[in-house]
Amino acid sequence: MRASLITLGCNKNQVDSEMILSYISSKGIEITDNLNIADIIVINTCGFINSAKEEAISVILNAIDYKLQGSCKHIIVIGCLAKRYKKEIYKELPEVDLVIGVDEYNNFDTIFSKYFNLKNLNSCLDFNNRTISSVFPMAYLRISDGCNNRCNYCAIPLIRGNLKSRKIEDIVFEAKLLVKKGIRELCIISQDTTSYGIDLYGKCELRKLIQEISKIKELKWIRVLYMYPGKVDDELLQEFIENNKVCRYFDIPIQHISDKMLKLMNRHTTKEEIYDLVSKIREKLPDAIIRTTVMVGYQQESEEDFEELKQGIIDLKFDRLGAFTFSKEEDTPATKISGDIEEKIKEKRYDEIMILQQSIIAKKMKELIGKEYEVIVEDVTEDNQYFICRSYMDAPDVDPRIFIKLKPNIQNVIVGEYYKVILKDIKGYDFIADLKEDINV
C-alpha cells in the first residue's frame, strides 16, 4: 500500500505528522506525495478557527473525489478537527473511514493496526522517530503540548488540554538526534514556550532548556517561537543577550493593545507591560527582530479600541506583524460575551492594519540596505536564477526571504550551508543580496 499525508494548520501539527509518517513507514507502507496513486490519504487537520475548519473540510472533500475515482481506498482524518468533531465527521462524511483525534495519539498503533488488520506492537508515536518534512537544515522541536493561559477566544485547551511539558533530558536527546542527521537550526515550539516546565518543575524552565540544547556543538541556531508577552522576563531576556546560538528573534503575539480588549480576551498582560517589554528588548538588543500577531473584531471592540491598536502598532513599529479577524469558537468563553462586530467591519479593520504595517515595513527594509548578514541557503528558485536564503531575522514558513542571484563565480554555494551576504535591493517583502566573496561560515 501507498499512503499520502496532508498536513494543515500550525507547525505543532507538522511535528505530529512527521511522527505519523515515520510510524506508517514502519508498517511497510510506502509514503508518496502523489495523491493519484495513494491507496491511503491521511489528513491532519486544524480546528482552531472557522477558516481552518473550512480548509480542512475542503481538503477532505477533495480526498473523497480521489476515493470515488477509484485511486484511493481509505481516507483517515486525524488531528484537531478530528478531536472536536469526530461524531460529526463520521455522520456528515461517510466516505471517511477512520477518524483519530489528537487525544487518541497514544493509542494510534492500536487504532491503525486494528483497522488495517496489521500486527499491533503497542508502539507510541515517537519524537525520536520523525520523518522530517521541514526545509533542511531546519527542524521544529516541540517542547510541550496544551496550554494553561485560557484566553477567552481560544479553543486550544478544548482540543489539546492543559499544559504538558516534556522532560528536559528527553528534549535534549531528541535535539541531539536531529543534529546528528544534519539539522543546524532548531525552532522551539509549543502553544506557549514561555510556560515550559511549570507543570513538571514548579517554575518556567525555558532558559535552562535553551542552555542545555546550546551545548550541542554542531547546532548553529536556536529560534524560540510563541512567547507569551507577560512571561518574557529579565532572566529569559538575558539568555538572548548572552547566548550566541539563540537568534535575536522575539515571536510575541500580543493580540491587542487596548487594556479593555486585553481584559475581555483574558490576556494576562496590559498595554503598559507590552510597551515596556518592547522598549526593554530594543534597548538591550538593538538588532532584535520582534514579531507579533494581533486580532481585530473581537466582541465590543469599539472604534476607539481599534484606533488605540493602530496607534500601538505605529508606536512600537514591529518588524513582523500578522493579523486575523476574530472567529467565535463554540464552547469557548467568548461565546458568552456580548457585542459581536459585523464581518464587514472586521474585514475593514484587518485591511487597515495590514496597510499600516506595510508602510512600517517598507521604511524598516530601506534602513537595512547595505548591511551584512549571515544567511542559511535553503533552496534554489524553480527558474534556477536565485538561491533562497534566510537570516536570523526570518522564521521559517512565515517571514520574507533573501535571494542571491546565481552567477558563474558562486557556483560553489551549497544548499544547507551558511554564508555572509550584503543586502542590495528590495523586491516586495523580500531582499536581493550579493554573496560576500569567499566567506563560508
What characteristics describe this protein?
441 residues, alpha/beta, Rossmann fold, pyruvate-formate lyase- activating enzyme, OB fold (Dihydrolipoamide Acetyltransferase, E2P), 3 domains, 14 helices, 18 strands, 35% helix, globular
Rounded average pLDDT: 93
Tell me the Rg in angstroms. 23 Å
Strand content: 15-25%
Distance between the termini: 44 Å
- Helix % is 25-40%
Q: Order of strands across the widest beta sheet?
A: 2-1-3-4-5
| Class based on secondary structure composition and strand pairing | alpha/beta
CATH superfamily of the largest domain: tm_1862 like domain
Low-confidence stretches: none
Question: Tell me about the biggest sheet?
Answer: 5 strands, parallel
Count of DSSP strands: 18
User: Number of DSSP helices?
Assistant: 14
- Which architecture of the largest domain per CATH? Alpha-Beta Horseshoe
Label the overall shape: globular
CATH topology of the largest domain: pyruvate-formate lyase- activating enzyme
Number of domains: 3
CATH class of the largest domain: Alpha Beta
